[in-house]
Automatic annotation (TrEMBL):
<dbReference type="InterPro" id="IPR020595">
    <property type="entry name" value="MnmG-rel_CS"/>
</dbReference>
<keyword id="KW-0285">Flavoprotein</keyword>
<dbReference type="InterPro" id="IPR040131">
    <property type="entry name" value="MnmG_N"/>
</dbReference>
<keyword id="KW-0819">tRNA processing</keyword>
<dbReference type="InterPro" id="IPR047001">
    <property type="entry name" value="MnmG_C_subdom"/>
</dbReference>
<comment type="function">
    <text>NAD-binding protein involved in the addition of a carboxymethylaminomethyl (cmnm) group at the wobble position (U34) of certain tRNAs, forming tRNA-cmnm(5)s(2)U34.</text>
</comment>
<dbReference type="GO" id="GO:0002098">
    <property type="term" value="P:tRNA wobble uridine modification"/>
</dbReference>
<comment type="similarity">
    <text>Belongs to the MnmG family.</text>
</comment>
<comment type="subunit">
    <text>Homodimer. Heterotetramer of two MnmE and two MnmG subunits.</text>
</comment>
<feature type="binding site">
    <location>
        <begin position="10"/>
        <end position="15"/>
    </location>
    <ligand>
        <name>FAD</name>
    </ligand>
</feature>
<dbReference type="GO" id="GO:0005829">
    <property type="term" value="C:cytosol"/>
</dbReference>
<keyword id="KW-0274">FAD</keyword>
<dbReference type="GO" id="GO:0030488">
    <property type="term" value="P:tRNA methylation"/>
</dbReference>
<feature type="binding site">
    <location>
        <begin position="269"/>
        <end position="283"/>
    </location>
    <ligand>
        <name>NAD(+)</name>
    </ligand>
</feature>
<protein>
    <recommendedName>
        <fullName>tRNA uridine 5-carboxymethylaminomethyl modification enzyme MnmG</fullName>
    </recommendedName>
</protein>
<dbReference type="InterPro" id="IPR026904">
    <property type="entry name" value="MnmG_C"/>
</dbReference>
<dbReference type="InterPro" id="IPR004416">
    <property type="entry name" value="MnmG"/>
</dbReference>
Length: 615
């Protein structure tokens, strides 16, 4: 086959975003995947976003990625989680019509210039002079390229478990990938095994929704993407049910038949997203767990029961489900299962997601030990963009913990590695007051424009928005008043004689727009989106000022590279345990070394002294 600049292997969430990013940069890109018809398939729950994950989607969108726009087209119930808490921890989430999402993703990629979709399985890599320069397909075809991005998901030596059954598979009904794992091992990469699971799918016609609590979406659906005008799909309700003591008894009585508890599964699963058998054992004092019944589509009678993933045999899954309210006569369309798969130790990667030991080969998604569509898509964007930037000979796109959740995720992965599937939480971001869903564009779009990753439509939209914000901020900062006038308008400021601007007054959470308009009528002319954004910016400006010194310190440490010649084994004054940890993690910057568990300030001082002294 003809050669390409960049080859993306796998059409899941990481692969789709990687392919779109690479092609957006204008390099000839091939997306090689088993079946074009499964591009954009959601292997598990039909939803995009949520706490922490919604941040990733907004950041992907800010870099002109596609997940947000596609989720706006597939969304059938939009909710902003944590709406009552502060803007920093809100999480936009949208229930998806699985088919609409997949179709929109396939249409988007088919219409992307510079992108060719190739059906087939990649079985091996072309490695020449220590660089990856293409792929070999199972049917013998060879495709050359200057860079390859692997996004193989749960397919590497995938093994499905359900009760006593084990089936080699990449996901239900799809064969596993064997050749690539052998190649990655032969290249000396450290591989590990992880597991994840999915619940049974239920037939909506067999559920008694009349006795269950409805959960509606937000009355005014908020799109993920800055480029989406309005959500046009009809919106649906989800429903709540619960596990019961009887369901727990059935599960406990059958634990010996569970793949997890019979010892057949050895690898770690996600702690925060446990199977129902795990929950029943680990939280034995609880006799009920909440379960959301989520529709999988507008014209699909399949229901996804969120919260009861299981690797118990199908008859036990049916029995415990039927012991739950509304599910007395439930019919299972497809039983749940657990899956074990290979992943590569992400500490082998650089911040561009290229393998340090193998130039030209990038990894993104579940293969790096993460779980979740959004985590996969975010890595795909960074890996695809960097593969293309390397081909173009341009500077890489490297994000920082100080500017994005994407930066936090990549830094966590490459500095600390994983012991269980990694997913994003707002608690992972130390600067979360600054890294909000509402300001993802302010933090990232300029970076994307600078490296050519952001297309003309979004760049123009961004410029208009930034100009609107700048002129409104200028106005609000130029309007000033005395404390007594402010108090008359209802803003309870200290009577300290200091004049404050309208922008300063907006930092008080109780200040209403009407209060300000009563003092300065010209504020009523401001666009409501612009005003609301500046109100949040004003409230958080105080915290940002306080955090600035910490942000600067992290940036400084991130820019202090640890040279390859530094040999921890030869450093006097480091304990053997510390040496082992540093050798295993191979931190690339002082900031990463600092985050390795157990690395003390004294050890860092020693490392810094050696770097300063030179070889
Ligand atoms: P995938 O979406 O798995 O896509 C991989 C793609 O690569 C597929 O299209 C495949 O056909 C293709 N491919 C693989 N190997 C090759 C090859 N050699 N040649 C060509 N094509 C190839 N996430 C959660 O957040 N919560 C959950 O509860 C959850 N449960 C899950 C349960 C199950 C059973 C599974 C399978 C996944 C679950 N996930 C869950 C994970 C979520 O589906 C993944 O994190 C996400 O889809 C990973 O995206 P990805 O792009 O890395 O891989």
């Amino acid at each position: 086959m003809s050669a390409f600049d960049v080859i993306i292997v796998g059409g899941g969430h990481a692969g789709a975003e990687a392919a779109a990013a690479s092609a957006r940069l204008g390099v000839a890109t091939a997306l090689v995947t088993h079946k074009a018809a499964t591009i954009g398939e959601m292997s598990c729950n039909p939803a995009i976003g949520g706490l922490g994950k919604g941040h990733l989607v907004r950041e992907i969108d800010a870099l002109d990625g596609i997940m947000g726009r596609i989720a706006d087209r597939g969304g059938i119930q939009f909710r902003v989680l944590n709406r009552r808490k502060g803007p920093a921890v809100r999480g936009p989430r949208a229930q998806q019509d699985r088919k609409l999402y997949r179709e929109a993703m396939q249409a988007e990629l088919s219409a992307t210039p510079d992108l060719t979709i190739v059906e087939g399985e990649v079985d091996d890599l072309v490695v020449r002079d220590g660089r990856v320069e293409g792929v070999i397909l199972l049917d013998g075809r060879r495709i050359d390229s200057k860079a390859v991005v692997l996004t193989t998901g749960t397919f590497l030596r995938g093994l499905i478990h359900r009760g006593e059954e084990t089936i080699p598979a990449g996901r239900a009904g799809e064969k596993p990938v064997l050749g690539l794992s052998l190649r990655l091992e032969a290249l000396g990469l450290r591989l590990g095994r992880l597991k994840t699971g999915t619940p049974a799918r239920l037939d909506a016609n067999s559920i008694d929704f009349s006795i269950l609590t409805r959960q509606e979406g937000d009355p005014h659906p908020e799109p993920f993407s800055a480029l989406t005008g309005a959500i046009t799909n009809p919106q649906v309700a989800c429903f709540e049910t619960r596990t019961t003591p009887e369901a727990h008894r059935i599960i406990t009585d059958n634990l010996s038949r569970s793949a997890l508890y019979s010892g057949r599964i050895q690898s770690r699963g996600p702690r925060y997203c446990p199977s129902i058998e795990d929950k029943v054992v680990r939280f034995a004092d609880k006799d009920t767990h909440l379960v959301f019944l989520e529709p999988e589509g507008l014209d699909d009678s399949t229901i996804y029961p969120n919260g009861v993933s299981s690797s118990l045999p199908e008859d036990v899954q049916l029995a415990f489900l039927q012991a739950m309210p509304g599910l007395g006569d439930v019919v299972i369309k497809r039983a749940g299962y657990a899956i074990e798969y290979d992943h590569v130790d992400p500490r082998e990667l650089s911040p561009t997601l290229m393998l340090r030991a193998l130039p030209g080969l990038y990894l993104a998604g579940q293969i790096n030990g993460t779980t979740g569509y959004e985590e996969a898509a975010g890595q795909g964007l960074i890996a695809g963009a960097n593969a293309a930037l390397a081909v173009l000979g341009r500077a890489p796109l490297i994000l920082s913990r100080t500017n994005s959740y994407l930066g936090v995720m990549i830094d966590d992965l490459i500095a600390r590695g994983v012991t269980e599937p990694y997913r994003m939480f707002t608690s992972r971001a130390e600067f979360r007051l600054h890294l909000r869903v509402d300001n993802a564009d302010q933090r990232l779009t300029e970076l994307g424009i600078a490296c050519g990753l952001v297309g003309e439509e979004r760049a123009a939209h961004h410029r208009r928005r930034m100009e609107g914000l700048a002129s409104a901020r200028h106005l609000l900062q130029s309007l000033t008043t005395t404390p007594s006038q402010a108090r008359k308008a209802g803003v309870n400021v200290n009577a300290d004689g200091v004049r404050r601007s309208a922008f300063d007054l907006m930092s008080y959470p109780t200040t209403g727009r009407g209060d300000l308009e009563s003092v300065w009528p010209e504020i009523s002319a401001l666009d409501s989106g612009v005003y609301d954004q500046l109100a949040i910016d004003a409230q958080y400006a105080v915290y940002l000022d306080r955090q600035q010194a910490d942000i600067d310190a992290v940036k400084r440490d991130e820019s202090r590279a640890i040279p390859d010649w530094l040999d921890y084994a030869l450093l006097p004054g480091l304990s053997n345990e510390m040496k082992q940890k540093l050798i295993a993690a191979r931190p690339q910057t002082v900031a990463q070394a600092q985050r390795i568990e157990g690395v003390t300030p004294a050890a860092l001082t020693l490392i810094l002294a050696v770097i300063r002294r030179g070889r």
